[in-house]
Model the fold of this input.
Amino acid sequence: MGNELKGMRTEIRVAVVGLGSIGTRVVEALDRGIAGITLTAVSVQHPEKHRGLLASLAHPPAILPIEALCDVADLVIECAPSRLLSSIVAPFVSSGKTAVVLSAGALLDHEDLIELAKQHGGQIVVPTGALIGLDAVSAAAVGTIHSVRMVTRKPVRGLAGAPYIVENNIDIERITEPLRIFDGTARQAAKGFPANLNVAVALSLAGIGPDRTRLEIWADPALTRNTHRIEVESDSASFSMSIENVPSENPRTGRITALSVIAYLRKQRAPLRVGT
Done:
């Protein structure tokens, strides 16, 4: 009976929203083949910009509006502007399906989506992305975490134009040495740096929440890579982690973010799964 059930397992149908640096790499990986996964559709704001990419794929997916994706997919990967989060995620989780969310910061403004997933048996997945050690933080959170602090250092061009910098008239374009531009909570950082600090929100959701997770942000003209250092104190362990990310084509996003999504997809039907 067990073998019969295994043979009946159907492939997971995946839709991707957004074909920026992350979405493009995920779509290309899916087209090359991931066991048990099929790319069925993509949704983009300007389809004509991406027809060359999609035509180059061995198995081009359908190009559909966001509202049509839930009919053709079991899982959606959100790689889109954060303002579209609710329209992408809500149909899937209210149908008991899965939504992989890259705009983690926007979840703090749409906590109703988490409740919707709970009510209907859906699931919202925030991938590890640019942050190592989320498994350790999640494990520590089963016990008691006393404090979580993160220090992020970024190249100037990766922070330029952030709402917090504009609102506070911070001139980071001309700095000649490292400048601390923010010290506050993960929730405050998500509002002030919506395109930069999804990693801090993911850390807070894994641990003690966005209002107790502390964050420093530094602009450093000497850097070419984003760096994050995390320090955690808990009743089960005290640990620190640091990572230096190679930027993607988008200076606000590390290359490892797309790879994290691909790793998550590979785990879905893998015979060996390492990490929670």
